[in-house]
Amino acid sequence: MRATYTYQDISLVPRKLSTIRSRKNIDLTFDLSFNGIPYKLRLPILPAPMDTICSVHMCRLLAGNQMLGMIHRFQSDEERLNGYRDLNAAGQDAIIAVGLDENTVINKFYNRGARLYIIDVANGFNTAVEPAIKYLQDLGNTFIICGNVDSREGFEYLAGLGVQAIRVGIGTGSMCTTSIMTGVGQGIVSSIRECKAVKDELQLKALIIADGGIRGAGDIAKALALGADLVMVGRLLAGTKEAEGNILKYEGKLYKAYRGSASFAVQQKGGKNPYYVEGDETIVEYKGGVQNILEQIEAGLRSSLSYMAARNITEFVTNSDYVIHHSRD
């Protein structure tokens, strides 16, 4: 048996003399352009497609920060399409989350100009995803995210199907109880390392999206240093003004709901019989506007890169080393 590691098990270690005088000189942008369509993200971060995270308000604010939001799939088709229409009217875009059998609504989004999609399933290492991937590919000029996978075999499988980006991590999110309910999953650090190794070995083009386990900017930095191209965050954005859901008051403090996509409430909301639940539900303290969160993340990443003598993320990956706090071999 091999040891498996999470972000809490490792720390980055500076090995190269830094000549960076100001964090302002650091470039955190990520080029997501495809098929001639320019998408340069201000930060290498995507929000999780969860119903208590990505409201249209969240998508709008992220777009205003040169980032991409998600139109999640846990609402009616009309609500989803209207939300995307409102973004389009403002000259903004978002990634559309879809399930495995949503060809009709995909057509409607595509006809309205949507080209970025995420096939939002728990297990991407399954032949059930193939028809949905092919359908989106046949539409033409689409960018497809799929997952989740937790191994080199899963990553190689989806990369072989031609998707542009793959969500890596099973059971690692704070609201995900998959590992508890099924016994499946490994530490997110081990997942990223495994998928990065096969990507380099076979020269695969698919991007790695580290998904789950992020508690702060330091964890985002670790994910990027390990080789993730993008990092998906949920809890960091939960409880903000722009996150979907009402503000609750309890014992004099303000809160908002936060729940996993496979939680009882979400499955019931989607019209499913929640006979098996792999997501948790909780409340998080109200944080105010998400702009402050984005600025905190940016500041943390700039500091991390400066420690590693890196002026951009490419240099960051090259220069970074890490140590494991304690061996569990």
Could you walk me through the main structural features you see in this protein, from its secondary elements to its overall organization?
This protein has helices spanning 56-64, 77-89, 103-111, 130-139, 152-160, 178-182, 188-202, 217-226, 264-269, 290-307, 313-319, and strands at 10-13, 30-31, 40-41, 45-47, 69-71, 94-98, 116-119, 143-149, 165-168, 207-211, 230-233, 247-250, 253-259, 281-285, 321-324. It is of the alpha/beta class. It is globular. Residues 262-268 have low confidence and may be disordered.
Concise account of the structure shown:
The chain contains eleven helices and 15 strands. The chain is α/β, with parallel strands linked by helices.
Mass-distribution shape: globular
Q: How many strands, what sense, and barrel or not for the largest sheet?
A: 8 strands, parallel
Give the oligomeric state of the chains in this entry, treating copies of one chain as homo and distinct chains as hetero.
single chain
Structural category is alpha/beta
CATH architecture descriptor text: Alpha-Beta Barrel
Look at the structure and give the CATH class.
Alpha Beta
Count of discrete structural domains: 1
The helicity comes to 25-40%
- The share of residues in extended strands comes to 15-25%
Element order, helices and strands?
EEEEHEHEHEHEHEHHEHEEEHEHHE
In total, the number of strands is 15
The number of helical elements comes to 11
Alpha-carbon Rg, integer: 19 Å
- Low-confidence segments, given as residue ranges, are 262-268
Largest beta sheet: strand ordering: 4-11-10-9-8-7-6-5
> Overall mean pLDDT score?
91
Distance between the termini: 8 Å
- The CATH superfamily is identified as Aldolase class I
Would you give the CATH topology?
TIM Barrel
